[in-house]
Each structure stands twice: as C-alpha cells, then as structure tokens.
Automatic annotation (TrEMBL):
InterPro entries attached to this UniProt entry: ABC2_TM, ABC2_TM_bact-type, ABC_2_transport, Nod_factor_ABC_transporter
Cellular component terms (Gene Ontology): ATP-binding cassette (ABC) transporter complex
PANTHER family registered for this protein in UniProt: NODULATION PROTEIN J
Main subcellular location: membrane
TM spans (from-to): 53-77, 83-104, 163-187, 255-274
The UniProt record lists the keyword Transmembrane helix: yes
Originating species: Umezawaea endophytica
Protein name per Swiss-Prot or TrEMBL: Transport permease protein
Amino acid sequence: MSLTLPPITPAPMPRAPRSVLQRLRWLISDSWNVASRDLIHWIRQPVRLFSSVMYPVVSILIFGYVFGNAVMVVGGWNYREFLMPGLFGQSIVLGVGVTLVAIAEDTNRGVNNRFRTMPMSRAGYLAGRSIADLLNSTLDIVVLMLCGVAVGWTWHLGFGNVLIAFGLLMLLRVAMIWLGIFLGLIIKPENTSVVWTVLLPLTMFSDTFVSPQMMPEWLGTISEWNPLSATVGAIRELFGNPGWPGDSWVSTHPMVMAVVWPLAIIAVFWPLSVRRYRSMS
C-alpha cells in the first residue's frame, strides 16, 4: 500500500505594513530585535565588557595622577575637575571605532545582506545598531562618572544641568554613530585599525586635557574648532567645572556649538549612510 503525502505549501510571506502607524510599529519592533542581538553579542564577549569598564579607570589613573600634577588649572582647581568632562567627551568620540568595527564585520560576513533580504523594515538594521551603541555609551559614561566621583570630581550646579550635559553627550554620540556607520559600510574589517590611529590624535587635538592656549597657534586654532572641544566646554559649564576661557567666538559659545556641530555631522552622514546601505549589492 502506497502512502501519498499532501503537497507542501510554502508559508506565505508576511505583508509589508501600509499605514504610517503599522510602519512605525514595524520599525520599532525590528530595530529592537537588531539592538537586542547586538547587546547579546556584547554581553557574551567578556573581554569587550572588561575593556569597556577598565578604560575609565586606566584613563583616570594615567591622566589624573601621572600627568595631572604637571598641569596647573586656572583658579587653583583640582586638575581632575577639569579632566573628567574631557574624558566623557573622549569616550563618546572613540565610540566611532566601536560602531565602525561592528558594521564592517557584519558587512564582511554578509549579515547586512541577510537582513536586507528578510521581510523587515529597511531602516531596522541601522536604527537597531544605533540603539545598541547608545545604550553601551550610556553605561560607559555612568561608569566614568562613578570613577570620577571616587577620585574627587563632582558637579556643582544641580542635577538638572547634569541631565542637559548628558543629553549633549548623547547628541554627539548619535553624530558619531552615523559617522561610524558610514565608515563601516565603506571600509573593510582588516583596514579598521587605521581609523583607530586617527581617532586618538583627534581627541587630543582639543581642550580635552589641556588648554588650546598652551598649544602652538595653528594647533590651538584646530583645537578650538574641534567638535569635541565644543561639547567638552559646554558640559564643563553645566557641571560647574573649571575650563579655559578662549578669545575666539567658537570657544566663548560652546553651548551653541555643542548643538550645531553634532547636527551638522548627522545632516551629512545620516543620508550618506542610508544611501550607501540601500545601494549595497
């Protein structure tokens, strides 16, 4: 007796949402799924977690205690009061490398192509990557703040200003995320080390650790116009920490430039990243 099996009918592909509300729900769901994937990868790599936590401690020890005694701050302030906002900003900018490496590895392994062929929001992958990086950066800043409090740093102008300063840091991180996404889509994983060699000097060519007035004139000008200098100067004002007053317009209006610079970077690299992602074969 022969047994006849019924024909196998493939499952129908889910329909793409049509209304604006349905598309928004689709985007939020897919973005969180991608972000959860990235966070799980991060948690399951203890070396990355350890390095993320240890970096603030090592930075404070090196710059706060090794070099700090050689730097005099205007007004007789403790150098670590001047240093900590600079370390907050440096940590945010160095996050470009984290985003870049993750995007480059996904591109090299074909993960991006797999997501693009799945029935999911076209913006879900990039948005999910952004959410994961923002959460990681939030943890980094919290750890840095706790380390700063442990060595004598604090804020002096109220918790409301702390929230505004944190918002400015996250705004800069969003700008760095889109810069990192664009670079990650065009750079191969084996070439990402070149970006790290450029990032660290760029964070030094700012008022992160010393005043631009202590640098050669041409380097001091570059430092004053560095987007990192604007954010660091702004959060120093919000925290009530000491800074270095400059003579140029950009150095005397850090609050304005701390918003203008990140928005300008986002306006350039957001559309470039989306266009590059959509045009990938």
